[in-house]
User: Which sequence fits this backbone?
């Protein structure tokens, strides 16, 4: 069964280029050219992934992403943002809102295809084994991609779940940014480590009173410390 990618983009030449390459890679492609129509298409079709331009008429891509990631039903759909090369703030904002990844324009359509494939691979590898991971009051169920903190549901994006899984699989071990990029994002070393830093910041916000357990090891990376003994 072919995976479905929703492409939300208002530039016809970009649409034609990406649709061609995504279809060539075996994806079913749906297209919308506005933010509001794209959001409705997500709700109606629940695609396997969304390729979302930031600059859209009416409702922007950032607004679409914010709405998706705040909706428990839609939050698990991975989002790849398309951004202008100069819009660093928009790229960071997209990641902060929960987008899993971004590609800057001008881009190689093959890179977009590879990024989408990597998103789906990460999603599926996270649910392949029905294992429960625990660290103090943090509990992850890999079979359902669900998480709990102090017994309450923890709303995580797919990438945040994978990131927390990496730390729970390596208790008290410092994980470098390059290692996280490889294991969580599937990238080779040398990729933009700000992606990691932004997702770590978001994950800390969601951990609330437990945020201090996710420690920055200056010049090395991050580690998840065990809970303090009472």
Assistant:
């Amino acid at each position: 069964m072919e995976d479905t990618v929703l492409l939300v983009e208002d530039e016809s030449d970009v649409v034609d280029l990406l649709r061609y390459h995504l279809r060539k890679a075996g994806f079913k492609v749906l297209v919308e050219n506005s933010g509001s129509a794209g959001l409705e298409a997500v709700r109606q079709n629940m695609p396997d992934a969304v390729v979302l331009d930031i600059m859209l008429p009416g409702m922007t891509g950032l607004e679409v992403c914010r709405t998706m990631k705040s909706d428990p039903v839609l939050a698990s759909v991975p989002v790849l943002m398309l951004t202008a090369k100069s819009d660093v703030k928009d790229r960071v904002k997209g990641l902060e809102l929960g987008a899993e990844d971004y590609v800057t324009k001008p881009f190689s359509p093959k890179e977009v295809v590879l990024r989408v494939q990597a998103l789906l691979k990460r999603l599926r590898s996270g649910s392949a084994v029905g294992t429960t991971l625990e660290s103090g009051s943090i509990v992850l169920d890999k079979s359902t991609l669900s998480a709990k903190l102090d017994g309450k549901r923890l709303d995580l994006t797919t990438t945040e779940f994978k990131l927390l899984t990496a730390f729970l699989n390596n208790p008290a071990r410092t994980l470098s940014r390059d290692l996280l990029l490889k294991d969580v994002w599937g990238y080779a070393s040398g990729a933009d480590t700000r992606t990691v830093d932004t997702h770590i910041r978001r994950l800390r916000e969601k951990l609330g009173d437990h945020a201090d357990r996710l420690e920055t090891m200056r010049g090395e990376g991050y580690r998840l410390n065990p809970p303090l003994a009472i």
The chain has two domains: 4-125, 128-224. The chain has a mean pLDDT of 86.
